[in-house]
């Protein structure tokens, strides 16, 4: 799907289901393009295939974060979104009113970018209103953690997580390679 040419039928396929929400293959392709462009690396088939797994993981986490914000009744106003998009535009050397055209010029519909920014804003609000007040870190805990990090400097670190994907038997692994 992220390999070679992609048909319209493939783009409307389902990449993942998160509770009752769907992440489409088009969502995955668009986000992979955003990551590829922001990485500064040349857009190659190999890079897209390497990014597909981590990007899908990120989309799943983002969908869960948005769902949590919705569950808590947290929302983002159009004004907040516009301000955030203006900041992003300026960081990329684009005038805010030209952001949509700039995204289109690189083959990226603005809605996918806006969705990502909206999700980031929502999660920031969840953390600020719900999680941050519950966290109380003492100076001693900070010093202990810093000492532990210094002691383990240079040692290998592993990020372990598991996501189970269920696919219909008619789909082959080649269908899933992005």
TrEMBL record:
The residue ranges of the SurA N-terminal domain are: 14-126
Q: Which Gene3D superfamilies match?
A: Porin chaperone SurA, peptide-binding domain
Q: Which GO terms describe its molecular function?
A: peptidyl-prolyl cis-trans isomerase activity
The record's listing under InterPro entries reads:
OMP_Chaperone_SurA (IPR050280), SurA_N (IPR015391), Trigger_fact/SurA_dom_sf (IPR027304)
Q: Specify one Pfam family.
A: SurA_N
Kindly state which keywords UniProt assigns to this record, in alphabetical order.
Isomerase, Rotamase, Signal
**Identification of the protein by name:** SurA N-terminal domain-containing protein
């Amino acid at each position: 799907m992220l390999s070679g040419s992609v048909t319209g039928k493939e783009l409307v396929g389902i990449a993942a289901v998160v509770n009752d929400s769907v992440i489409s293959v088009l969502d995955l392709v668009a986000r992979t393009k955003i990551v590829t462009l922001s990485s500064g690396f040349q857009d190659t088939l190999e890079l897209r295939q390497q990014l597909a797994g981590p990007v899908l993981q990120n989309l799943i986490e983002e969908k869960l974060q948005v769902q949590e914000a919705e569950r808590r009744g947290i929302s983002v106003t159009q004004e907040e979104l516009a301000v955030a998009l203006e900041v992003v535009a300026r960081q990329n050397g684009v005038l805010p009113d030209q952001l949509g055209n700039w995204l289109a010029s690189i083959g990226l519909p603005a809605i996918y970018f806006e969705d990502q920014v909206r999700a980031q804003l929502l999660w920031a609000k969840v953390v600020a209103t719900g999680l941050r007040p519950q966290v109380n870190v003492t100076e001693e805990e900070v010093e202990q953690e810093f000492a532990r990090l210094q002691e383990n400097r240079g040692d290998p670190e592993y990020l372990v997580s598991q996501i189970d994907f269920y696919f219909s038997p008619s789909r082959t692994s080649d269908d899933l390679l992005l």
